Amino acid sequence: IIGGKQMLASQVAAVWNPLFILLLIPVFSKFIYPGLSKICELTALRKMSIGFWVMGFAFAIVAVLQHFIDAGHYPSVGWQILGCFFLTASEVMISITCLEFAYTQAPKTMKSLVMAFFLLTVSFGNFLTSQVKFLLLESDGSSKMSAVEEFWFWTILIIITAIFFRIVARTYKTVEYLHDS
Questions:
Q1: How many whole angstroms separate alpha carbon 106 and alpha carbon 111?
Q2: Residue range 97-126: average pLDDT?
Q3: What is the distance between the alpha carbons of residues 156 and 150, in angstroms, rounded to a whole number?
């Protein structure tokens, strides 16, 4: 309950995600990335890799939260906001870094094409997600899994993606193409 009103699950993301994005971008730039750079070499690929693990953690929070709800408990909306916080942190680490990475990896004459392919892959990812979700539905539109099972399904899928991403990222040789001053 916030401000005397109940929030629907869909409202949590609609309200908190944009707010967290506005807050987390400068926090990551000024504090988190410099702090992580003191621990390890923080490349764009490593930022994205960490972002996938943070995303898996965010989905695990929501899966555990759903388990409590299914067991008849009524946890605070703060737990869902916490999940949204970590999901947004992963979004900052993956989406923004990926956009920057795609731009810096393209030669000057191909930047527009590479950015178009970047946006195309985002669209393809959204389409692929919708198709997987479609496979999880019965013919009447109900889910083949309980809500908690579905959240754990997506959590495991994200963790598998994080593992494969890290394997591929280790073999990638970065070359930055920046504009002349």
A1: 5
A2: 90
A3: 10
